[in-house]
Amino acid sequence: MASLLSTATNANLNEVPVQENRRERKTLRTRREIVRAAVELVMEDGYERATIARIAERADLATRTVTTRFPSKEAIFFEGFEVVMLPLQRHLKGTDGDVVDRLQAWIDEMSALEEVEDPEMRLLRSRAIARDPDLRALRVHHFNRAHDAIAAAVAADTGTAADSAGPQMFAAATVAMFGVIEQVAAECSADALPELEHGFRVLRGALAALT
Description:
With 211 residues, this protein is an all-alpha fold. The chain is 81% helix and 0% strand. The protein has eleven helices and no strands.
């Protein structure tokens, strides 16, 4: 896009933002239609029966349109996981402060990102995951890496083994807390910060007990 703009005429410079906005709006509408269709099918028949073909049919789209936007059915519900997971692992491997400080630094980094998930899609996904046992199991699977990284960081802070009871319980509590905060934020973003702060206070108490 930069190379095109650098050689565009003044008229083209005026047109490009409008064209881009139209494409972006159309893309967002299509993605919403896909997520909405997938959630409706999950609510009706469960995750397993919500196939890509049925999602495309419900959204009145070609199957290829769905797979172009989302490479897999799982991605419709857990898109962007790597975007948050990799920074989490990086912060937890750091040495600034204790494990709770590093978790808070990760949250601050994520909050500062310019691109925010579409609220409607976030809410739809959250409700489907809360409702469907298969999706809840997939969320646990996705968060296993976070669990392991948190347990390892706690073990380093407390001089214990990562697979011992203390780090494992702390990691499980942290992952559960983030799951709850995610649901709260999807329903009402204003309620998320107070609950998150409360959760961090609980984690600090747990870490103090372990040390």
